[in-house]
Design goal:
Elements (H helix, E strand, L loop, with lengths): L5 E5 L16 E7 L4 H17 L7 H4 L8 H14 L3 H17 L6 H18 L1 H18 L12 H16 L2 E9 L4 E4 L2 E5 L7 E3 L1 E8 L6 E7 L4 E6 L6 H15 L8 H8 L3 E7 L5 E7 L5 E6 L7 H12 L28 H6 L4 E5 L22 E4 L3
Parallel strand pairs: 1-13, 2-10, 3-9
Antiparallel strand pairs: 1-14, 3-6, 4-5, 4-7, 7-8, 10-11, 11-12
Helix pairs in contact: 3-4, 4-5, 5-6, 6-7, 8-9
Length: 407
């Protein structure tokens, strides 16, 4: 005899609670250049970063996230040791320390600072005047000239430099102003690097024009977000000079760039790729601002939310340099990101079918045999009569879950 069963079609169990966002609500910028569009891409990246910063968009701090691993700046320590020796009137030791500092910076120009370089030459000039007699006058004049080429606006510290050094400095500056000049071409790989020259920012590569500078040995340093700072000493002759500086990607940033250079062209206008999450994890940012730039500077910008796979799309890059409207759209999207997607549940309907599979509950003959079935919709506790051998319930399916309880 078939026992009476009470079958309960329970409301579907809720899916697991949505996980909170695991990445900070900030953005990372990736500008990919099409072939032959490197100069345009560099310009767009510089202008975009500047516009985002001016409008207080929270961007990943690349310098903090990927600090450079340059060796310790031994030159600064040598300079201090040289000054201490001067204070102790040990001019031989001081001379050796200042010369060693200049040699260190010659080998590691990324560490060099024109003010420190020029100051080292001033100390060497002063020591030559104090200890070198008449031959020292020539050595002093040479060092004064080198100091002025590097940093023509350098001021003397009266604690260390007296009237004799001041006299040589004034003469050297007058000679420098009358000296011939030539063009100094400055390039970097990649482009988009900020150039520091003679203690001031000169612009971003590619520079609009080569500066005209006095003949002599100059220091050029460059920096770019996500790259290690770099520099070079260049001797400018009457025929000019060229500083060609290559920047290395900071540790960890190289792989992110490589990935995005493949992901952006393949997915722009199509959707947020799953692999973008790995890049965002590296960059410690939930959002990726991405664009691909053509030689003319045009292109489409998107913002990818790697948590929800939502995106801001179809934002055209301006070719007139007015990035304001673009940043407004980006800010609006970042200010109201979509919540992280939660597990969806289906609505229970009268036509819902029992759980499918190999379970006995999916067989028509089972349901036909159970004539006295009472169906009750419930989301909480229910009781019923079951056959003498309890059956394993089928896996829960969207719609309803059959639940059997033995009496």
């Amino acid at each position: 005899m078939i026992s009476l069963l009470l079958v309960v079609l329970a409301a579907p169990a809720q899916g697991p609670a949505a996980s909170p966002s695991t990445l900070p609500n900030r953005a990372s910028l990736f500008v990919v250049s099409k072939e032959t569009a490197e100069a345009s891409g560099a310009r767009v990246e510089v202008e975009l970063r500047k516009a985002l910063d001016e409008r207080s968009v929270a961007l990943t701090d690349l310098e903090s996230l990927f600090p450079d691993d340059l060796p310790a700046n031994r030159g600064a320590a040598l300079m201090k040791e040289g000054v201490d020796a001067v204070d102790n009137l040990d001019f031989d030791a001081a001379n050796a320390k200042f010369a060693e500092a200049l040699e260190f910076w010659s080998q590691t120009p990324a560490h060099a600072d024109v003010k420190e370089l020029a100051t080292a030459h001033l100390h060497l000039a002063n020591i030559a005047l104090q200890t070198g007699g008449k031959p020292g006058q020539k050595v002093a004049a040479e060092n004064i000239g080198k100091a002025l080429v590097l940093h023509p606006t350098l001021e003397l510290d009266p604690k260390y430099f007296g009237p004799d050094v001041k006299k040589l400095l004034d003469k050297g500056l007058a000679d420098l102003n009358k000296a011939p000049k030539a063009a100094l071409k400055i390039v970097s790989a990649p482009l988009g690097a900020e150039v520091m020259f003679r203690g001031a920012a000169l612009g971003v590569t590619p520079l609009a024009e080569a500066p005209s500078v006095p003949l002599g040995r100059h220091l050029v340093t460059v920096k770019r977000p996500g790259f290690k700072p770099a520099g070079a000493f260049v001797t400018v002759t009457k025929d000019g000079g060229e500083a060609s500086i290559e920047l290395a990607e900071a540790e960890g940033y190289a792989q992110a760039l490589k990935s995005m250079r493949a992901l952006v062209p393949a997915n722009l206008g199509k959707g947020v790729p799953q692999a973008a999450r790995d890049v965002a994890s590296t960059m410690k940012s939930r959002f990726l601002i991405v664009t691909e730039v053509s030689p003319g500077g045009d292109g489409q910008l998107e913002v990818w939310d790697v948590e929800t796979r939502a995106r801001l799309k179809d934002v055209a890059l301006p070719t007139d340099g007015n990035f304001g409207p673009v940043i407004d759209k980006v800010k609006a999207f970042l200010a109201n990101p979509s919540p992280v997607a939660v597990a969806k549940t289906s609505t229970v309907t009268a036509t819902a079918e029992p759980a499918s599979g190999d379970s006995v509950f999916s067989k028509w003959w089972f349901w036909a045999a159970v004539g006295g079935v009472v169906v009750v919709g419930a989301a909480a506790t229910t009781v019923g009569v079951v056959a003498s051998q309890p059956q394993q319930a089928a896996p829960a399916q969207p719609g309803f879950n059959p639940v059997l309880f033995p009496l």
